[in-house]
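A quick aside before the break. I want you to see a complete sequence-to-structure record at least once, exactly as it would be stored in a machine-readable document. Don't worry about memorizing anything.
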Amino acid sequence: MKKSIFIIMLTAFAIGAKAQTKDSVKLYNPAADARAEINEAVKKAAKEHKNALLQIGGNWCKWCIIFNDLVTTDLDLNKYMTDNYVVLHVNWSPENKNEAVMASLGYPQRFGYPVFVVLDDKGNRLNTISPLYVEDDKGFSKAKVMYFFKKWSPMAVDPKTYAVDTN
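That is the input. The structure line, written in tokens, reads:
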């Protein structure tokens, strides 16, 4: 009996510790100057021959944290993402809706959160991706996220290097 109680308490503690870690993650800075950060990300992308990937959302958004956890802990996704994109978390929250930035990006918040905007190395918007395109019934699909990353990488959008998808 004592052993069962101990196991139950240990499990509850582990679940609580994991939940606390997820809740305490702060990817987004409501006080940040989003326009300045985007400009810096684009400059860095140009220097590194990458595209900029804007993940728009907020610390209040559970799915934003879940997506970030997937792409930073899955080795394949993380490698492909960091090899091809400069990633920036752009805040949208009641404290700072970044209205001018959202307008300049074509109002991506209309798709829900997180929403993804891909910019080329000159700051031109290549695409806006609704989270629905990378979800499955349990969360985010590794295969769909990788497909998205591959289809909007610098090589994929360069007419000299892209290949026609026959799927």
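Two observations worth writing down. Residues 9-21 have pLDDT under 50 and may be disordered. Strands lie at 51-57, 85-91, 115-119, 125-129, 135-136, 139-140. We'll return to this after the break.
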